[in-house]
Specification:
Number of helices of chain B: 11
Oligomer: heterodimer
Number of domains of chain A: 2
Structural class of chain A: mainly alpha
Distance between the termini of chain A: 16 Å
Mean pLDDT of chain A: 81
Strand content of chain B: 25-35%
Order of helices and strands of chain A: HHEHEHEHEHHHHHHHHHHH
Largest interface: A-B, 26 and 36 residues
Distance between the termini of chain B: 45 Å
Structural class of chain B: alpha/beta
Strand order of the largest sheet of chain B: 5-6-7-3-8-9
Number of strands of chain A: 4
Mean pLDDT of chain B: 88
Largest sheet of chain A: 4 strands, mixed
Shape of chain A: elongated
């Protein structure tokens, strides 16, 4: 960095940039509207949870144990017991879409259990809806474990419920999972898209010549331009935080200070990415397209926001490491839901720092090269 | 700084972009208080030369001294001594007049009081009579240029570079703008200006003509005219264009240039004029005229390209 850095000039640029933001309807709409739309979209409309699965129980044993077993299913919270349809044929409920699942308990269920043998039950599932079916399949082992405990050992009830709990998100509430992730999408996209326009706009307008004809230093331009968007990004973060806590009751178990600092780190990485795009393209339209491609798509698809990174092909598991969004996704969820501290998050923090450092250096170098005679 | 130091001095200035040589060995000196005109076709190297003189471009080779300063400090020392108004409109259309000027003052690190005083002074100088809160985009073109000038000289530079300041501006506003330039040099400033309008170039104390990166002529407008046209200059008027083409073959006739509905004839000397007048084709009238800078430009710049 040059020795003759002037905070005054950086401030003059920041002040001007804020005026641009306030006067440009597009920027304002994007900055205010985007978080709102995303929250409504992902917070309300999209729910990956499967609840109230209609279940018919055909208990042919009708013993105390079989009734208890059926009861465990019915009270698990995932299922909604419905009356068997009149008529014959065990799977008629599935055929008529009266229920999504049928639990069949054979007549010798209690006898086999008491005799120390394996008692088999059958769970028949409507597999037409793939997502739904796989969600139900995911619930079964937990319920079965609970049933086994209760029926074979007759232990206290608390121990049974414990084994069906899902850690960190007992209710398997996807909103708890989605909303902290939204912070990543909103902040990242805002920061990248808005900064991508700033430098390109100066080149297109010709006002870069005015900046260049003054003794202003590249770092003063960079800081002056990034600071307002940093603030805008933080406002986005606060908005998401309030929505998460007040609107959706998402718990916040970690340190607020840590989360704030890491938000700053993530914003820096995103702003640097936007700046790099702007410096490299020098055209607003191209910069906009590039920022959407590099800012929105990886956030949505490759950050682990919707699709778990662990279930991606090996190449993508490594590839996603160059995305700041992946690391901040881990941080955001960790701090919100697990109460992770800096040590727990050492790896994502390191990853994010490296990305922020590299992007900022490359952008600044490139910018300096353009600006200095 | 002693008065004797020239405002601008270049020696063998060369600027290359890769293999392309934009400025090719240009040397000239601009005196303090001078209006120095830069003329040349697009791509002749005028803007590139100016950008180097403003400290925006490093010379590939050769020397540049502006206000007694050279390029050793990366051009930043020069930047504080000069004001530069570039070809493109550099003010922000979505900011008000006051905001634009405050921004320019901030970049120049003027303290608020000095900036306010200087802003008032300059707005008076350009005769600005719109509200300061007006958006720049709502101002007429000529006024925008005057405002851009004010922003460029807010820090009271000794030397002012104006790159086509009147391009696309209405004639009356152009005249006004040149009035401002004259007042600047009257107060001791040095102005280096480029223009496409030949009539404007008459305002310059001296004119440098550039072609393909080279300086092909440098003199006062009068000297350039007599240099380019040592012999008489005539304007031909006729109903029958065919007789004019016949003239160009005559001895002593240097050139025949179409000029709207008329022709400009340049002759070698008085003898050529006498012999031509004696054998004038019918229907053709000739009258003596003084060559304009446009004639000079056509002869020196465009003539050389053939």
């Amino acid at each position: 960095m040059s020795l003759d850095f002037s905070p005054g000039r950086a401030l003059a640029i920041a002040r001007k940039e804020i005026r641009h933001i306030l006067r440009d309807p597009f920027t304002l709409t994007l900055a205010l509207g985007l978080p709102l739309v995303l929250v409504v979209f992902f917070g309300f409309a999209i729910d990956f949870d499967v609840r109230g699965i209609t279940l018919v129980i055909h208990d042919s044993d009708k013993s105390r144990i079989s009734r208890q077993f059926a009861e465990i299913f019915a009270s698990s919270g995932y299922f909604l017991a419905v009356e068997p349809a009149p008529g014959s044929g065990v799977l008629r409920e599935l055929d008529t879409a009266r229920a999504s699942g049928v639990l069949l308990i054979k007549p010798d269920f209690a006898r086999r259990l008491i005799g120390g043998r394996t008692a088999q039950t059958q769970f028949v599932l409507d597999g037409a809806d793939n997502t739904r079916a796989s969600a139900i399949l995911g619930y079964l082992p937990g319920i079965l474990r609970a049933a086994r405990h209760r029926l074979t050992q007759d232990g206290p009830a608390e121990r049974i419920t414990l084994s069906t709990r899902f850690l960190y998100n007992h209710e398997l509430n996807t909103r708890w999972f989605v909303i902290p992730g939204l912070a990543v999408i909103v902040m990242g996209l805002l920061a990248i898209m808005l900064t991508a326009l700033t430098v390109a706009r100066e080149w297109e307008n010709g006002s870069m010549e005015l900046l260049l004809s003054t003794p202003v230093r590249p770092w003063e331009i960079i800081l002056g331009k990034l600071a307002p968007y940093l603030i805008l990004g933080l406002i986005g973060a606060v908005f998401i935080y309030l929505t998460a806590r007040l609107g959706f009751g998402v718990p916040f178990r970690g340190s607020h200070l840590l989360y704030f600092l890491l938000c700053l780190l993530f914003l820096t990485a995103s702003l640097a990415q936007g700046l790099l795009i702007s410096v490299a393209t020098r055209q607003q339209q191209l910069a906009m397209q590039l920022s959407i491609i590099t800012g929105l798509l990886p956030s949505l698809l490759l950050s682990g926001f919707v699709f778990p990174i662990e279930s991606m092909p090996v190449f993508f598991q490594y590839f996603t490491s160059i995305l700041s969004q992946k690391w901040f996704m881990m941080i955001s969820r960790g701090v919100f839901l697990q109460g992770s501290g800096a040590l727990d998050l050492a790896r994502p923090i390191l990853g994010l720092s490296v990305i922020a450092g590299v992007l900022l250096t490359v952008a600044a170098k490139r910018f300096k090269k353009d600006l200095e005679p | 700084m002693p008065e004797a130091t020239p405002a601008i001095e270049t020696r063998d200035l060369v600027i290359r972009f890769g293999k392309f040589t934009a400025v090719d060995g240009v040397s000239f000196t601009v005196r303090r208080g001078e209006i120095f005109g830069f003329l040349g076709a697009n791509g002749a190297g005028k803007t590139t030369t100016i950008r180097a003189l403003c400290g925006l471009l490093a010379p590939t080779s050769g020397e540049v001294r502006v206000a007694g300063l050279d390029f050793s400090n990366g051009g930043n020392a020069i930047k504080s001594k000069v004001g530069y108004m570039s070809q493109k409109f550099t003010l922000y259309n979505d900011l008000t007049v006051a905001e634009n000027l405050a921004f320019a003052a901030g970049l120049r690190k003027l303290d608020p009081e000095a900036a306010a005083a200087r802003t008032r002074e300059l707005l008076g100088f350009i005769g600005f009579d719109h509200p300061l809160g007006a958006m720049v985009r709502d101002l007429p073109g000529g006024l925008k240029q005057e405002l851009a000038l004010a922003a460029a000289i807010l820090h009271d530079p000794e030397i002012i570079f104006l790159d086509e300041p009147t391009a696309g501006v209405a004639p009356a506003a152009r005249e006004r703008f040149w009035g401002l330039i004259g007042r600047l040099t009257d107060s001791g400033k040095t102005v280096l200006v480029t223009t496409h309008y030949m009539d404007e170039a008459e305002h310059c104390g001296r004119i440098a003509l550039m072609r393909a990166g080279r300086l092909i002529a440098l003199n006062t407008p009068e000297a350039l005219k007599s240099l380019a046209f040592p012999g008489p200059m005539l304007e031909a008027t006729t109903e029958d264009p065919r007789v004019v083409s016949e003239l160009s073959g005559r001895p002593g006739v240097l050139s025949v240039q179409p000029y709207g509905m008329r022709w400009h004839l340049s002759l070698q000397d008085k003898t050529a004029w006498k012999s031509l007048a004696a054998t004038l084709p019918p229907g053709l009238t000739l009258r003596h005229i003084a060559p304009s800078l446009e004639d000079v430009f056509i002869r020196l710049v465009e003539g050389g390209e053939r």
